[in-house]
Amino acid sequence: MFWRFVLSAVKFRRRRLLLAFSGLAVAATLATTLLSVYSDIDRKMRHEFRGYGANLIIAHGPHSQTVPLTAVDEAERLGAVAAPFLYVVGRVGEERVVVAGVDFRRAAPLTSYWHVDGARVAGRGECLAGSALATHFRVSIGQRVPLESGPCLVRGIVSTGGPEDNRLMVPFERAAAAGFQNAASMVEVRADGPGKTTGQSRVEEVRAALALAVPGADVRVLYAVAETEANVVLKLKSAVFFLALIIFSITTLCVTGNFSALVIERSKEIGLLKAIGAAESKIASLFLSESLVLALASTLTGYVLGLAIAYGIGRKIFSEAAVGVDFGVFMPVMAVTLLVAVIATLLAASRIWRIEPAMILRGE
Amino acid sequence: MAIGAVALGSAVATAMLGAMLDVGDRVNRELRSMGANLIVTPKSASLPVDIGGIRYQPAAKDEFIPIASVPKVKSIFWSLNITALAPALKAQTPVNGLDVPVEGVWFGRDLRAPDGTNTQTGLRTLNSTWKVQGRWIDDRTPDDRSGECMLGAALARRLGLQAGSSLTLFGETFNVTGILSTGSEQEDRAFVRLEVLERLTGRAGQVDAIEVGALTKPEDAFARKDPAKMKPAEYERWYCTPYISSIALQIEQVLPMAVARPIRRVADNEGQVLNKVRGLMLLIALAALATAALTVWSVMATTVLERRYEIAIMAATGAGRAMIAALLGAEVAIQGALGGIIGALVGAQLSGAVSQSVFGGHGEAPALLVPVVVIVATAVALAGAAQPLRNALMLAPAVILREGI
Question: Which pTM does this prediction carry?
Answer without folding.
Answer: 0.77
